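Reading group handout, session on sequence-to-structure problems. Before we discuss, look at one worked example. The prompt was deliberately terse, the way you'd type it at a terminal:

> structure CRISPR-associated endonuclease Cas1

The input record follows.
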Amino acid sequence: MSYRTVYITNRCRCSYKNGYMVVRQDDQTMIHLSEIAMVVVESTAAYVSSYLMAELAQARIPVVFCDIKHDPIGQYSPIYGAHDSTKRIREQIAWDSAVGDELWRRIVVSKISNQARVLELLELEQARMLRDYAMSVEPGDVTNREGHAAKVYFNALFGMGFSRDENNAINAQLNYGYAILLAWLNREITSRGYLTQLGIHHCNEYNHFNLSCDFMEPFRPVVDLYVANHPGESLDTRTKSDILELFSDFYQLPQGTYRLSSILSLFTKTNLAILGGRADIDAYMEFSLA
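And the output record:
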């Protein structure tokens, strides 16, 4: 199982040789592609060879590029994620909306429960209110418990005047973590032959990642907890590296202990099987913060 995130922050040349990604600066570093889960190219002065890009695509390793402000701006993924992608897309178009609504209910319950756990870990009394919200989510979340919980949650975490639309250090960290999380889910969905554009709840015609946005919801609190514990820090190289390391942290599931990156893979696989009728809704994989 690949586990390393390669983080390129300085001017360098990245190439491919005999199964290895080769990074040349003053010295040379070689990393076997089998060890790499993701590549993040922050520096706009880095050279990445087309041979390496082709091999990364062949190995289904996502590459995230950052803009001049060092914010994630784009992702490189293989065109063909699976040999039966046409079959999977036809299946996706025909997904049962009732199954999708129930799956979305469970995803929202997981998200709100993990938000409540974040507040409990920080000893904030609003956690009890979120637990109540989680217990009242209906299929499709028609009463928008997710939205009501989010308002209470972010006000409790970052203060009553906090807004996700503000340009500040907290939102910079959140946006960076969410962007990396989204890239992980994009990889998992496309590698199985499905379209990220067709979601079960998110349906914005201008959003290329509706399904990824659906699946990422229970995992956002992982990023939130880190940011809540580092609220005044700028989004520098060390902070970005720390956020990337979150995906190597271990969490307990009924099946055993897994890295977060592996859990994202299992979560995606299970959800797609449920939506495709290959697994019962009760196979839904609950992810809980420790």
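Points for discussion. First: Residues 85-283 form a domain with the Four Helix Bundle (Hemerythrin (Met), subunit A) fold (CATH 1.20.120.920). Second: The radius of gyration is 19 Å.
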